[in-house]
Fold these 2 entries.
Entry 1:
Amino acid sequence: MNIAMLGTGYVGLVTGSCFAETGNDVVCVDIDEAKVELLREGRVPFYELGLEELVERNTREGRLSFSTDLGEAVKRAEAVFIAVGTPQVSAGGADLSQVFAVAEDIARAMNGAKIVVTKSTVPVGTAARVREIIEEHTRHGVAVVSNPEFLKEGTAVEDFMKPDRVVLGGDDADSLERLKDLYEPFVRTGKPIILTDTRSAEMSKYAANAILATKISFINETARLCEKEGADIEQVRRIIGLDHRIGPHFIFPGIGYGGSCLPKDIRAMIAMGGEELEMPLLRAVDRINETQKGLLLEKVKDHFGELSGVTLALWGLSFKARTDDMREAPAIRVIDGLLEAGARVRAFDPEAMEEARKRYGERIEFGGSNYEAAEGADALLVLTEWNEFRSPDFPRLKELLRGPVIFDGRNLYDPAAMRRQGFVYHSIGRSGG
Ligand SMILES: NC(=O)c1ccc[n+]([C@@H]2O[C@H](COP(=O)([O-])OP(=O)(O)OC[C@H]3O[C@@H](n4cnc5c(N)ncnc54)[C@H](O)[C@@H]3O)[C@@H](O)[C@H]2O)c1
């Protein structure tokens, strides 16, 4: 199939590369010329495991190319995917200006009937609006299909290649059949391709993110109660996770969820409720998360009192492990709070230091390794659950730190073991730390 992928960010690039990998001809389009130039040189502008190899191979074999020319890509395509950003507007809803702008551009470029697929996460009714916009600007036929994406940054290629399910929402049988064929190579293990209406497809993406965010805020609220009542959230988590109705996933306590999806999608879902539906559960989920992001900062302030002149080492900057994405990362709240209180910050992250440099410039220092970041610091804050932070050389760490104090925002270490080794150890929701 000839495909135009409009928007070459995390979703567009992964989707486009994976479609090329299964033999399709894909042109990935972006308005960001520097990004397109970088990709043409075979370089991926962000860190995602396995993606560079996929881009390199499919570009070399002629199935994948990059362009800023949307019109040309649309003209040669049978299916046009919209994978542009849908950031949050200040009132909390989704900003659909990029989606509507490309819808108009698609219509103006159309030279025949097209399947237009909304891949971006968009509120219910957007596919219908996209169709209206296109029909206002062209006489060619169009079928609009909603195809929400469920990949996770960090394992995006793997998630796309082996999805739990593929969702196709639309009412045009031929275009649904064409897209079903397109996805068939990805569901060979028997995972379903679910055909539904556009509105249910759009809602399913928000509902999926909302339940994940709810689980995280639930466990974080319970962690706070554990701290107050002298219980251990890690014990509680294990016990409840063994109940198959609950399951072990997404109930890890921490310093709140971040990233480019959960925070904005929860708020977009609240906004969808409008004046009719207050959406009290999701409002609470969002509020709990905002409080949780500030929790480690509170603990640091309680411990040190005055922070001016105090140096804090930070391990982890990205919103989660295996990505360099810092959008809405809890680390931002922590760093902003520390700098505001006059502390010095020295950070290390395996992938996200470039991103942090763009945001903070010279205002924070960076270590060449996690140990270098810790050298001479008054305390260590663990903010991201990178594997390489899980079993550090604790005697070495203790020697490097000026004060043997650890604030662990991800509960990576055992409180008793930390105490035995002479650390003052603070973590989330555990009686011993
Ligand atoms: N990142 C994720 O993990 C993830 C997962 C599932 C769904 N989503 C959703 O997918 C969508 C895209 O997310 P992302 O993380 O890939 O965003 P992103 O910001 O990484 O990429 C969006 C890209 O679209 C480009 N763009 C904007 N206007 C354009 C135009 N007129 N023509 C061509 N390109 C244009 C931007 O330059 C940018 O490169 C969002 O709706 C998001 O909610 C994201």
Entry 2:
Amino acid sequence: MSASSYQNSSKPVIEVRDLNVTFTAGAKPVRAVDGVSLQVASGETLALIGESGSGKSVTLRSLLRLHPPRSSRISGQVQVAGMEVLGLNANALADYRGRVCSMIFQEPLLALDPVYSVGDQIVESIRKHEPTVTRTQAHARALELFERVRIPSPERRLAAFPHEMSGGMRQRAMIALALACKPQVLLADEPTTALDATVQIQILLLLRELQRELGLSIIFVTHDMGAAVEMADRIAVMYAGRIVEMGPVRDVIRHPQHPYTAALLESRAGMERATDALNEGHARVRLLAIGGAPPDLTNLPPGCAFAPRCMYAQDACRVAAPDAVQVSAEHTARCVRLGAAHWRDAPVAAPLATSA
Ligand SMILES: Nc1ncnc2c1ncn2[C@@H]1O[C@H](COP(=O)(O)OP(=O)(O)OP(=O)(O)O)[C@@H](O)[C@H]1O
Ligand SMILES: [Mg+2]
């Protein structure tokens, strides 16, 4: 769906407000998610992008309340299809998972049960949520789902165990399982990273098609800016547990407002240039990279967490974390320089550092 229909739609299907997640098992608490707020409309895809450890998976798992209850603290509001997820009791939560909100994991072998056939897992999932459905009816639905995700010889494959399938087929089976109970919301956590490039594209195309057909609301986590552009209506960029920039894909790509977003875009462009150069026979290529190390989540600086790596950082950046600034109707970013004309007019896609 388009950005404008997001604006016009009445109530978002996903509404997260001021989500904070801290893990407390280690010597020092880990602040993995820090004040995240986002909305996703019906039929919309939001891509969540950022470096490893920036809190993308923790944010997603919060929507299903999958964190270890004894060693995590979670606060804020998570509303999905009108349900207050953080307040659900055990029964309501079990019903919510899969029926309202489902997840596709990066590595389906970890999510699928190795001792049951994939077909049995789909049948059980349907019957758990809809006890009046018979095994035969559930099996027919599983077959339909396998056809829909284009698994060849679907009847035979339903009897297969997860380890008997190829990576791409397992990911298709995982998608079928995730859709078995007709959820409104699909959370996809790097669903194609473990697959080779051609299979990745097939799975992304399949997801996009299913999303359109079924009107799903999707949060799609990825490292890959290209996949985010292909899949999403809007992009949220995460850094150190915070969303530092969010907006319609086109706006964020063409006019990134946060230096971290600009650096992500530039490192992708650098990678593409390097690949071209290697293809042209150059033996060594200098790659642009985001300089400095990702922040320590047990000891975050008081101001903007990106400041130590940012070539535009100034004193104000180290004092307090900047609030989100509305750049345009749907585009927000958290950078103190946003108000300053010299930053807006500067070439935002400038590299932050160069490494050999
Ligand atoms: N159960 C847990 N207990 C303690 N720390 C955790 C737990 N789960 C995640 N973390 C920490 O929270 C931070 C954010 O993790 P998260 O998995 O969300 O990163 P991510 O953005 O998904 O990274 P990646 O791209 O590598 O998947 C990391 O520092 C991680 O070590
Ligand atoms: Mg992750």
